[in-house]
Write a structure and sequence with these properties.
Elements: H1 3-10, E1 16-19, E2 22-25, E3 37-44, E4 48-52, E5 60-65, E6 69-74, E7 77-78, E8 84-85, E9 99-104, H2 108-111, E10 113-119, E11 125-133, E12 136-151, E13 165-168, E14 171-176, E15 198-202, E16 231-234, E17 239-246, E18 252-258, E19 264-271, H3 272-275, E20 285-286, E21 289-290, H4 294-297, E22 315-318, E23 325-330, E24 343-347, E25 353-356, E26 366-368, E27 383-388, E28 394-398, E29 402-408
């Protein structure tokens, strides 16, 4: 656990949570020496938000910029001309809006299809499809744009948009925040008739029979039950990032980083079959504790509905150590031998990058990664995300523009 969280444990504030017939002990992890990691700067972009290689082109990297441009890194250099420029259709004046997510269809080499998640001029969240020319991934066809899904904003702020996209097998997963700050007053995250505060799962191919822009997998958890069929999991404040991996036992796993309100940040690590249909607790709970909304937002006091059936995080830290968790993938880079198969995560506000060994129900081995990115304006590095290329090499990028490959020293 992090230092701030351990202090709270020692004070007895969070020594143990007793949950509806089951107990979950929060264990202070032992001290470990930091691995010898470092970074090498690769490129400079404008507020990068996502980074990935298109399938079949491992030496090529696509990068999204928050203000609306899709860029490419080729042969270690940023290509001068953007592949797409969506700035005219995006309101990026608020920091939680903009071009936020990128995912490639698994058959990209054949189909040329990829997907972007961005907010529009109103602040609504949209997922759109584009196509590159066959065999020419850098030649994106702007006229190929197709709207896949549209999720209206909740209020004028238009914040908590999540924005991450990723394929698991042939299905597209989409993270969407609760859309309302502070406190999710409309209770979107717990409302199964709202797509806000959720991770969604769809087949992005249009359904010619029904005329809809996407298909809903028949095995989604709420198909045939009350609630929106697109929902895979719910009860999130702002699930900024998630990723998939397979553990040593061959179990398909998911990691989810959910940005907290005013007290706790949380990292969820669990099998996919347990995440399916799970309730992660917001806004009844923040981390392991009932959400403390205060007199301004809860004049009658907080009133969590229940702990029954809630899915609890595997790692929590307080705002003594940051303000917004930035989660990353399980490290698969074969050159990073000291941290391979560990989760890497950090924080937007604090100069901190850490790695943790996946473990359920509680992460026991959480340690510093041994470096942080160069500070930009002020004293913080504003870590904005992680990504991998086609060779499984790991990258970190900063809101201030730097894109860095993580290396072993």
């Amino acid at each position: 656990m992090t230092a701030g969280f351990c202090r709270r444990l020692r004070a007895g504030l969070l020594a143990m949570v007793l949950l509806a017939g089951a107990s979950m002990a929060l264990i202070i992890s032992p001290s470990h020496a930091a691995p010898k990691l470092g970074y090498a700067k690769v490129a400079e972009a404008s507020q990068p938000t996502a980074l990935a290689s298109p399938p079949g082109y491992p030496r090529l990297i696509f990068v999204t910029e928050r203000e609306g441009k899709l860029r490419a890194i080729r042969r270690g250099k940023l290509v001068a001309k953007p592949l797409l420029n969506l700035t005219g259709g995006i309101d990026s004046l608020r920091i939680e809006r903009g071009l936020l997510g990128l995912a490639f269809a698994p058959d990209f080499r054949k189909s040329g299809l990829f997907y972007l998640n961005h907010t529009d001029r109103r602040g609504d969240s949209v997922v759109v499809e584009y196509r590159s020319r066959a065999g020419k991934p850098l030649q994106v066809i702007p006229s190929s744009r197709r709207l896949v899904i549209h999720i209206p904003r909740v209020n004028e702020n238009g914040n908590h948009n999540g924005g991450h996209l990723a394929f698991f097998r042939n299905l597209l997963y989409i993270s969407i925040g609760d859309g309302f700050d502070p406190g999710d007053l409309p209770d979107n995250a717990q409302n199964l008739e709202s797509l806000r505060g959720k991770i969604l799962r769809i087949d992005p191919r249009p359904d010619s029979g029904s005329g809809t822009a996407y298909r809903v997998p028949a095995d989604n958890p709420f198909v045939g039950l009350p609630g929106r069929d697109e929902i895979f999991a719910f009860g999130f404040r702002n699930p900024y990032s998630f990723s998939f991996f397979r553990d040593e036992a061959g179990t398909d796993m998911i990691t989810i980083s959910d940005v907290g309100q005013g007290r706790f940040e949380e990292l969820n690590v669990l099998p996919m079959n347990e995440a399916r249909g799970a309730n992660f607790g917001w806004n009844d709970y923040e981390g392991f504790e009932p959400y403390n909304c205060g007199e301004l937002y809860c004049p009658n006091g907080a009133n969590p509905t229940t702990t029954n059936g809630l899915t609890w995080p595997q790692l929590v830290y307080t705002h003594d150590d940051g303000c917004a968790i930035i989660g990353g993938p399980v490290i698969a880079d074969p050159s990073l031998t000291t941290v391979k198969d560990r989760i890497i995560y950090g924080d937007f506000c604090g100069n901190r990058i850490r790695t943790a060994a996946p473990h359920n129900p509680t992460i026991l081995d959480d340690r510093p990664a041994g470096f942080f990115l160069p500070p930009g304006k002020g004293k913080h590095s504003a870590l904005n995300g992680f990504g991998t290329d086609g060779f499984k090499r790991l990258y970190a990028f900063s809101h201030f523009g730097g894109i860095y490959r993580i290396v072993q020293r």
